[in-house]
């Protein structure tokens, strides 16, 4: 588990493509590896990956085809910047929100506007994720724990302070940049929980997208009339 508080920005040194997956070598930048061992989990732009080899100021991780297809990793190349966060320890301060390191989809930055010293970003999420994104709710963008400030359909607004931009890959964002999205884990489990016993069946109470609508779930569960 992670908190979405980025510890360092690293970069990809090498990429080795295999039949259906890849191995990448990471330059970890300022990330402290003194307590990292083989098999440990580190989040890379919000994707939880396992350390398979340690070397000077870095390490290797394997990326499965499933991860490549579900994240922005399909477009990575050498030199690509990476937000890095080591797995949370029991004694760690919980500074962000619960981040699992499992990407739900890829969003696209559709506008960037300077607002004084801050910067406003609008990001378009995949339509199927829109129901899970709430105004003033938590969302992970490339592994960064952030708060949505406004919603417009499947698009949402972020207002980011200079410190966050300077300490993360957000300093490289441009209109059109693809970012990894992870919705708030509470929203994901709440929808499943509201299905009740019907969760065990694959063909009941679903809309055209294959899922029961959130409003139908809330109404059937007595939250709305």
Characterise this structure:
It holds the Pfam family Lum_binding. Residues 1-97, 98-194 form the Lumazine-binding domain. It comes from Psychromonas marina. This protein is mainly beta and 225 residues long. It is 12% helix and 36% strand. It has four helices and 13 strands. It has helices at residues 65-70, 162-166, 185-194, 214-220, and strands at 8-17, 22-27, 41-44, 47-55, 58-63, 81-86, 105-115, 118-124, 138-141, 144-147, 150-152, 155-160, 178-183. A seven-stranded antiparallel β-sheet has the order 10-9-13-7-8-12-11. A six-stranded antiparallel barrel has the order 1-2-5-4-3-6. β3 (41-44) and β4 (47-55) form a beta hairpin.
What is the end-to-end distance? 37 Å
| Topology order in helix (H) and strand (E) letters | EEEEEHEEEEEEEHEHH
The poorly predicted ranges are none
Helix percent band: 10-25%
- Using the alpha-carbon principal axes, give the shape: globular
Give the number of DSSP strands.
13
The major beta sheet can be summarized as: 7 strands, antiparallel
Strand order of the largest sheet: 10-9-13-7-8-12-11
- Which CATH architecture of the largest domain? Beta Barrel
Oligomer: single chain
**CATH fold name of the largest domain, please?**
Elongation Factor Tu (Ef-tu), domain 3
Number of domains: 3
Roughly what fraction of the amino acids lie in strands?
35-45%
What is the overall number of helices?
4
Radius of gyration: 19 Å
Mean pLDDT: 89
* CATH class group of the largest domain: Mainly Beta
Helix/strand/pairing category: mainly beta
């Amino acid at each position: 588990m992670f908190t979405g508080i980025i510890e360092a920005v690293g970069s990809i040194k090498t990429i080795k493509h295999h039949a259906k997956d890849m191995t990448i070598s990471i330059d970890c930048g300022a990330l402290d590896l003194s307590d990292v061992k083989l098999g440990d989990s580190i989040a890379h732009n919000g994707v939880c990956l396992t350390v398979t080899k340690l070397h000077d100021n870095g390490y290797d991780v394997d990326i499965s085809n499933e991860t490549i297809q579900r994240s922005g990793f399909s477009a990575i190349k050498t030199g690509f910047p990476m937000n890095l966060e080591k797995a949370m320890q029991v004694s760690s301060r919980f500074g962000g929100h619960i981040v699992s390191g499992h990407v739900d989809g890829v969003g696209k930055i559709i506008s960037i506007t300077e607002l004084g010293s801050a910067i406003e970003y609008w990001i378009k999420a995949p339509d199927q994720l829109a129901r899970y994104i709430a105004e003033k709710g938590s969302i992970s963008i490339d592994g960064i724990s952030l708060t949505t400030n406004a919603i417009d359909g499947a698009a949402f607004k972020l207002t980011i302070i200079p410190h966050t931009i300077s300490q993360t890959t957000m300093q490289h964002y441009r209109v059109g940049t693809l970012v990894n999205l992870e919705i708030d884990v509470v929203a994901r489990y709440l929808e499943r929980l509201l299905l009740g016993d019907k969760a065990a069946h694959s063909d009941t109470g679903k809309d055209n997208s294959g899922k029961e609508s959130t409003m139908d779930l809330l109404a059937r569960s007595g939250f709305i009339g």
